[in-house]
């Protein structure tokens, strides 16, 4: 991939399995990031007790680790999941 621009979805009959995995993992990564942001908001608002915060942190870390394993399995880098939405910019946040 050239430059820092996120890639667009390109389906090739030769690589359709990998491309489909990338698309599915992109959706899962988007949901993971949204869950993480919501968890941080709830922590900042004081809605969770210490045990809930600990459990949430462990769950999010495990999910992030599993995502890394799945990307490795399909030969994908994190930037491979960041679809370019044209004028809207990249789908996933970089933080």
Can you tell me the residue ranges where pLDDT is under 50 for at least 5 consecutive residues?
none
User: What is the number of helices?
Assistant: 2
- Beta content: under 5%
Class per helix and strand makeup = mainly alpha
Helix content: 55-70%
* Elements, N to C (H/E): HH
Span between termini:
20 Å
Our Rg estimate from Cα atoms comes to: 16 Å
Q: How many strands appear in the DSSP assignment?
A: 0
Instruction: Sum up the overall morphology in one term.
Output: elongated
Biggest sheet layout: none
Give the overall pLDDT as a whole number.
Answer: 84
Q: What can be said about this structure in brief?
A:
The protein is 57% helix and 0% strand. By secondary structure, it is mainly alpha-helical.
Task: Explain what this protein looks like in three dimensions.
This protein is mainly alpha-helical. The protein is 57% helix and 0% strand. It contains two helices and no strands. The longest helix is centred in the N-terminal third of the chain and has 30 residues. It is elongated, with a radius of gyration of 16 Å. The mean pLDDT is 84.
Tell me the layout of helices and strands.
Blueprint: H1 16-45, H2 50-73
Keywords: Gas vesicle
Subcellular location: Gas vesicle
Pfam family, one: GvpK
